[in-house]
Write a structure and sequence with these properties.
The chain has one domain. The chain is about 25% helix and about 25% strand. The chain has two helices and six strands; from the N terminus they run ββαβββαβ. A four-stranded mixed sheet has the order 2-5-4-3, sandwiched between helices. A two-stranded parallel ribbon has the order 1-6. The two termini are about 20 Å apart.
């Protein structure tokens, strides 16, 4: 059964933790606990907060990269994005 997602947070840059903080780092730090989900078809692993139904993704900068990342997420059978914002 797919994981129901309520909100998808799309950022363009940033590391999960450590390093130089960016958009994604802020979400990871401010919305714990965020479980790391493997996402080999994307730039970074996804982050998921089961309690709130929030999924975070780094799409990277540039139209082609962003389109590829979001398309990969949209076709990932692990998630039910039918009611996601």
């Amino acid at each position: 059964m797919p994981i129901p997602i309520k909100v998808v947070v799309v950022t363009m840059f940033g590391q999960d933790t450590g390093g130089r903080p960016g958009e994604f780092h802020t979400w990871v730090e401010q919305l714990p606990p965020l479980e790391k989900l493997p996402f080999p078809q994307g730039y970074r692993d996804l982050r998921y907060n089961q309690e709130k139904g929030v999924l975070g993704i780094v799409s990277r900068v540039g139209s082609a990269r962003a389109v590829a990342s979001i398309m990969a997420l949209g076709t990932d059978s692990r998630f039910d994005l039918g009611k996601a914002y």
